[in-house]
Amino acid sequence: MNGSTVTGEYAIPAWKTSGHVEYIESGQKQGDMFLAVPEGAHALRLGDNADIQQQLYVTPGTQYSVTFSAARTCAQNEKLNVSVVPGGAPDEVSIQTVYTSSGWDSYCWAFQATAGVVSLIVHNTIHEDDPACGPTIDAVAIKTIYPPQATADNLLRNGDFEQGPYIAPESQYGVLVPGRDGTDVSPLPGWKVRSYSKVVKYINSAHFAVPRGSYAVELVAGGEAALLQEVDTVPGSSCTLELSVGDAGNGCVAQDQQPMRVQASTTDRSMTVVYNSTGTGGSRRASLVFTASRSQTLVAICSSAYHTKSDYSGTRCGPVVDDISLVCVSQPPARRLLR
């Protein structure tokens, strides 16, 4: 170590570092700015083209979710590349938008292991004007995820969101799930997040109001992020999509007193669910009946407006969705009268 600069690639226990990496303390200042340490007393800051990596022992073919906390420092448009080697191409995680008043957020990412030993790599690809600038990384955790199956009672997989990324017990802010293209491996099993640079938030009942069970999803990015799932359906069958819409009990009330609106769409029909939030928790149930026209039906859920908390902090929030189900019943063949 040279001050806060990590000079040895194995100076941080269990991690290998490359490039300009700093070991920062909570309360440490850079000029007039305090550096945010998400959890505990220390974190790593990844400077110009820096990365950290750790070797993981995993089971080939098994899917894993990685959770980590990150905060930007100098630049507004900071990004991180996350990958495993061997594995696919890195995925870009944007940390441009802050979704908490603390200055940092927790993010998640997922992969399917192709070997028994892989290296998890977090890389700051941005070439900073100041080599010491760059995002801070903290509280990295990994969790095994199990792909859920559809049932006769619910064609949607993981419609109750009880499977998802790791949330630390003491975490009060939930975990952000970024959009990701080109893969079926998701930290929110069964679901994809469609977005270029925005997220949805995975929340738990320990710190938020959840309509049912222990987990739900808060739509914090308006129409810029949607939950998607494609299911097998029989053309001509009668289908009912149901979901709960509410608020997380986190003071999310529109300043102009306009209600929250969630757009629930299928390949064949759509509906808008209106919810009048008081910011103290609660939910309502809504349903959409349609006739499947194809062998695969796409279900999409998104918020149609932006919301911020009523404390005037500017913190983004949004409606909560949970307990989503899709049930389809095939129509019996027409009976012919014999003469």
From TrEMBL:
PANTHER family: DUF642 DOMAIN-CONTAINING PROTEIN, OS02G0527500 PROTEIN-RELATED. Residues 1-143, 154-325 form the DUF642 domain. Gene3D superfamilies: Galactose-binding domain-like. It holds the Pfam family DUF642. The lineage of its organism: Eukaryota, Viridiplantae, Streptophyta, Embryophyta, Tracheophyta. GO terms for cellular component: extracellular region. It is found in: Cell envelope; Secreted. The keyword Signal applies. Keywords: Glycoprotein, Secreted, Signal. It comes from Lolium multiflorum (Italian ryegrass). This is DUF642 domain-containing protein.
